[in-house]
Amino acid sequence: MSRLQAKYPGESEYLQAVQEVLESIEDVYNQHPEFEKARIVERMVEPDRIFTFRVTWTDDKGEVRTNLGYRVQFNSAIGPYKGGLRFHRAVTPSMLKFLGFEQTFKNALTTLPMGGAKGGSDFDPAGKSDAEIMRFCQAFMLELWRCIGPDQDIPAGDVGVGGREIGFLNGMYQKLAREYHTGVLTGKGMTWGGSILRPEATGFGALYFTQHLLHKAGKDIKDKTVAISGFGNVAWGAVKKAMQLGAKVVAISGPDGVCHVPDGMTAEMNDYMLEMRASNRNMVEDLATRFPGKAKFIAGKKAWSIPCDIALPCAFQNELSEDDARELKANGCWCCCEVSNMGCQPGAIHFFQHNGVLFAPGKAVNAGGVATSGLEMTQNAQHLSWTAQEVDDRLHQIMQSIHEQCVRYGTQADGSIDYVKGANIAGFMKVANAMLEQGII
Ligand code: 2IT
Fold first, then answer.
1. What is the mean pLDDT of the segment spanning 317-335?
2. Does residue 96 line the site of ligand 1, with CB under 6 A?
């Protein structure tokens, strides 16, 4: 860690993600001298390669704009590179390196053969018109297409990249490559190679994982109150499944504040979140305006200020601090399943784990998204589409397997389960052994 800190000063998200994994695997690593001999850790913490490119496009006023685009191909030991694209003004190489690193372990947990990658741009989608989004996506793909391919690297969406963006990106890829297979991006539309349930998959998978975790702890999700941050695709799927399982979603937050929903979100309110997201306004206050009397907007507050049983961060890295964790616990919260990638700060995780709050990390909880991308790739390779039931059954099985892997590697001497250790060790063992077996490359 100290060598990495000296080498990459300022890459705080990347260093934070690596530190968490290295702390978890220390004991296991020391029991395997063959890993040390092959310098597995030194190799695993560095991406295989990073592409950086200029993306120039024209806005609606005719002004020329330039952004930076990236693709971080992190690790291909267990399969072709796979991971999302993030369009957000704060995107930096450090952010994409942390996400690519996490993705490598997450993908290993899914049971499917996918390596880890991440990409994106510092392009800010907020307030952009459809035409601007299209021109940016086309300009982005003009560079990206040479880096990807259905057997090399298969991008998908992430923050700021949903079905609309994947459509524009896929259209341009086919135009440039003159290859009309459907397997180079996932998260596609239903008429051009997409998988049913992919839009819901991250949220659904997170709730399936939560169910297994609660079951193991002798609890049940029915009638429990849930607080959720974010109103993107992931939060939408999480709300939908939480409601189906009989839980009550009492808080939903955005960058402007939180909506307190004492009687619980309804399907109508959840679907309105899709409209809020499509508007690019990025304000959760709109929910309270649309549903007065049902949702009360509190400016500047997080979801973690509303009393709940279960907290589900579904927004952005480091969104839940140690102070938030303390406030949650003081208000009666006893479970936090991280759905965003690295959504909890290290101090928050430490607090949860030492104060009797059940906690599971994003790379296990949110892996249903990329797992269903893997199922989309399988359907594309077979040139057919499965039913919702078939996709849902497989997603369920995968989340159950991820939970089992966490239990297998995370059960402590006192019988408690450290899900952070469990997920990190399980992912590490798979990738490390795959690297070892394939030699020094
Ligand atoms: O963080 C993630 O796992 C994603 N954004 C989904 C990646 C994918 O390839 O479906």
1. 98
2. no
